[in-house]
Amino acid sequence: MNDRISSIENRLYYIDSHLHEFSATITGVSEVKNGFAVTLDKTAFFPEGGGQSADTGFIGDVRVTDVREKDGSIIHYVNQPLTVGAEYLCKLDWEQRYRRMQCHSGEHIVSGISNALNGVENVGFHMGSGDMTIDFDKELTWDELMEIERRANEAVRADIPVTASFPDSETLETLEYRSKLELTHDVRIVEIPGIDRCACCAPHVSHTGEIGMIKILDFMRHRGGIRVTLTAGMDALDAVRVMQENVTDISRLLSAKRHECARAVERVLNENVKAKERISAVSMELAKMKAGSVEPTNGNICVFDSVLDEVALRELVNMLVPKCGGIAAAFSGSDGAYNYIIGSKNVDLRANGKEINAGISGKGGGSREMIQGRSTGTRYQIESFINSDFLRKE
């Protein structure tokens, strides 16, 4: 495993990022956990780096599951042994690689425009499956992000060449370029003239027009700046299609035109708020009626309900507490799945909570005067316990 692919010429992804089939000779094989590590005399498989995941594919008929760079060598991880000295036809999972190239080049455009337009720096980048995130060191508004998105797609439409080079140290000192690391040698500069110049080791498209579309999806505050979620290329098309399908479904469910869905949803939400207010009012009236129908006792009170909301159930207990000498318990639900609220002025419920929960197969807690939780018991079990001599005050 001492063979090294150190020259630019043997890293084929540097020479032609669109190369996805090539022949190569096996120069080393060693057994590792869960498979084998293989080196080639040249490779188009990109190892993980620069925020972009490693390529996968095949060497001959053997699956390549991961690619890493280690001590200057490109290591291909496979699930079967290969023959040293033999030449194999190698194939990348091209659709996956091309989508990543579209996304990564799209990220460079967005980062470059954001830096030029708003003075923000890209301090973190991650490419996931279907989308990616950029961390900027300063906050931006949604309107500012939409202006960046507009300009980014104008750059795509302009079909600007995307170039990559390894400037010598003297030239590098004169260049202004984006980089999150202090680099001194073997620095690869990816440039989109008029848009961005950045140190990057990953494969990119040849022209911005290949990206097709850049779409900013969301953003959130993050470590004093923002984290922007975006997508590009065919991933962006997939994302827009999913959003379109969702809007179409909402449109159908609400009987509203697609461009009027937001107003329709707002209308339904407002109607739900009013309905909940009416339900709450009705629940409170039912709680009063239910409390009024319970006779005072020196012992405990236990009631069951399947209508009252939580607020009304609590108020029911509050109204029942003065009517009993022990505890007032209200249960809502059905056998095996009850919510309960128990109140008392005469019994320390916090101190007796463990025994009460054991008796009703429950879990919960609270204060000295009120506890609440859930019970997996049956109505018969619960009533038998509450109506027993436990905590009865005569």
Q: Overview of this structure, please?
A:
There is one protein chain. The strands form four sheets. A six-stranded antiparallel β-barrel has the order 1-2-5-4-3-6. It is built from nine helices and 18 strands. The relative contact order is 0.08. The chain has helices at 12-15, 94-118, 142-157, 169-174, 233-254, 261-292, 310-320, 349-360, 379-386; strands at 21-32, 35-40, 57-59, 62-70, 73-78, 87-92, 122-127, 132-136, 163-165, 189-192, 196-199, 214-222, 225-232, 301-305, 328-334, 337-343, 362-366, 370-375. The radius of gyration is 33 Å and the shape is elongated. The N and C termini lie far apart (87 Å). Strand 7 (122-127) and strand 8 (132-136) form a beta hairpin. The longest helix has 32 residues, at 261-292. With 394 residues, it is α+β, with helices and mostly antiparallel strands. Mean pLDDT is 94; it is low at 1-5.
Helices and strands in order:
Elements: H1 12-15, E1 21-32, E2 35-40, E3 57-59, E4 62-70, E5 73-78, E6 87-92, H2 94-118, E7 122-127, E8 132-136, H3 142-157, E9 163-165, H4 169-174, E10 189-192, E11 196-199, E12 214-222, E13 225-232, H5 233-254, H6 261-292, E14 301-305, H7 310-320, E15 328-334, E16 337-343, H8 349-360, E17 362-366, E18 370-375, H9 379-386
Parallel strand pairs: 14-15
Antiparallel strand pairs: 1-2, 1-6, 2-5, 3-4, 3-6, 4-5, 7-8, 8-13, 9-10, 10-11, 12-13, 15-16, 16-18, 17-18
Helix pairs in contact: 2-3, 5-6, 6-7
